[in-house]
Design a protein that fits this description.
Layout: H1 15-18, E1 56-63, H2 67-78, E2 84-86, E3 98-101, H3 103-111, H4 115-119, E4 127-132, E5 137-142, H5 143-146, E6 153-156, H6 157-165, E7 173-174, E8 179-184, E9 190-194, E10 199-207, H7 214-218, E11 225-237, E12 247-252, E13 256-262, E14 267-275, H8 286-297, H9 302-309, E15 317-323, E16 335-336, E17 339-341, H10 356-377, H11 382-411, H12 416-430, H13 433-437
Helix pairs in contact: 2-6, 2-10, 3-10, 8-9, 10-11
Length: 450
């Protein structure tokens, strides 16, 4: 793997940059199976009641069956390491919209063997166009003009999760397994206790349980910090075929910005991001979500309004944007003994660079390779594997988190003079796509058994 590292001064280099060795671990040789018949059937762990002195034991436990958790499970499976994935929900959390994957994300999906399967279902995005809220075009780019190897596609979350789950052996995922407590045992193993009173003892715990990770909290991480913006999101549906060119469409206003991008021949992802002094109450009523969104952009592009109108209720969401900066020295370690964090559980970042999911996928491959060195090759201990994983990933994650935050701050400015300079000078004359896409230049080789 060719890794990318950044120093803090590099963050601001372009205008848009603002914008015990474990001898006893049991390696299970597993075979893929079809998840189709299991997808909607919750799988339960057979574990003893909490009142017992001992619980069921697993070698490698992954907490969370989201993108990071399933990608990590698939990567380890490709390397011959079996896992048990624990998910608090009753089934795969396939709701929500889509996510944009750049070439670093697709390199990971190719490495774990699902890239081709996913490509066939989603449009390749050719470029982007940026407009003002008045409809004036500020700038347009074609990705391949700058980087012939670039690949950008918006992917439905549901399909990505189901595709990853389909690669795992039967009974790999245990649903309705919400973590209530975690404890490190004297022998180094980790005791997990669930809300239903069951317990599970694990030799290794990989926490992929998202922004509000109980494991991260146990390891001393603070809550992710709200950055001052919220976003409405949805997935427009055109049963007769969506009418848009395969490009990202951005619209920048004052304190509000929006965008939409075709996902497939029938679906279009959209977002509206707005300034808010607080995250506000949680809203689940789709009629309220739709109304509030249209109140923000009611005089904007008719294309955007039409996409919002044809968005099914079950894809409408409103979320506050948060991140966590991994300051050197002061931030806790990404691992504690044989427990380690992956993806949003470790480094939540805002979506302004489109790298949250891509970085989680990168984590999955890097960690899996390090863990295989410890478990199979025995060239290091599990604890050392986790430490080298953190060292390799921190130099990439920390700068990206800061850059993404700063880009969002720039694009969310509501001062008229600042917005005029942004739309009249910065975007049309100073922004260069090459530096913007530089962080996607990370490649991974296909994972293979040692």
């Amino acid at each position: 793997m060719a890794s990318t590292t950044c120093s803090i001064p590099q963050i601001l280099k372009s205008p848009l940059s603002l914008l015990y060795p474990s001898q006893s671990l049991f390696l299970r040789k597993t075979q893929p199976y079809s998840f189709q018949s299991q997808r909607n059937k919750p799988i339960s762990l057979t574990i003893v009641n909490a009142q017992s002195n001992a619980g069921n034991e697993e070698d490698v436990v992954i907490v969370g069956a989201g993108i990071a958790g399933l990608a990590t499970a698939v990567a380890l499976h490709r390397l011959g390491i079996g896992t048990k994935v624990l998910e608090q929900a009753e089934s795969l959390r396939t709701g929500g919209t889509s996510l944009t994957l750049f070439k670093n994300g697709w390199s990971v999906l190719d490495a774990i063997g699902v890239g081709s399967q996913l490509r066939s279902q989603f449009l390749e995005i050719q470029g982007m166009v940026i407009k003002s809220d008045e409809g004036r075009e500020l700038r347009s780019f074609r990705f391949k003009d700058v980087d012939e190897s670039q690949e950008v596609r918006a992917v439905e979350r549901r399909i990505l999760l189901e595709t990853l789950a389909d690669q795992l052996p039967q009974d790999s995922i245990s649903f309705s397994s919400k973590l209530a407590d975690i404890e490190k045992k004297e022998n180094g193993e980790i005791l997990l206790e669930f809300e239903n009173g069951n317990r599970l003892s694990a030799k290794i715990v990989i926490a992929c349980d998202g922004i509000r990770s109980p494991v991260a909290k146990w390891m001393g991480f603070p809550e992710a910090k709200y950055v001052g913006h919220c976003a409405f999101r949805g997935l427009g549906f055109y049963p007769e075929g969506q009418p848009f060119e395969p490009r990202v469409n951005y619209i920048y206003g004052r304190g509000i910005r929006a965008g939409f991008v075709p996902v497939s021949t029938t679906k279009v992802y959209w977002f509206v991001c707005f300034n808010s002094s607080s995250p506000g109450p949680k809203i689940t009523d789709p009629s309220v979500l739709r109304q509030q969104t249209k109140e923000l952009v009611g005089k904007w592009s008719s294309d955007l309004l039409n996409i919002i109108d044809v968005t099914p209720d079950d894809t409408l969401i409103r979320t506050p944007l948060v991140d966590r900066w991994l300051w050197p020295v002061t931030s806790p370690s990404a691992s504690s003994g044989r427990a380690v964090l992956v993806g949003d559980a470790w480094h939540p970042m805002t979506p302004n660079l489109g790298q949250g999911a891509c970085c989680a996928l990168e984590d999955a491959v890097v960690l899996s390779k390090k863990l295989a060195e410890a478990i199979i090759s025995k060239t290091m201990s599990v604890e050392d594997a986790f430490r080298t994983y953190e060292k390799e990933r921190w130099g990439r994650i920390f700068p990206l988190t800061i850059r993404s935050n700063l880009v969002g701050t720039l694009l969310q400015w509501d001062n008229p003079l600042v917005c005029s300079v942004r739309n009249g000078i910065v975007i049309p004359k100073l922004v260069r796509l090459g530096p913007v896409l530089e962080h996607t230049n990370v490649e991974f080789e296909p994972l293979q058994l040692p």
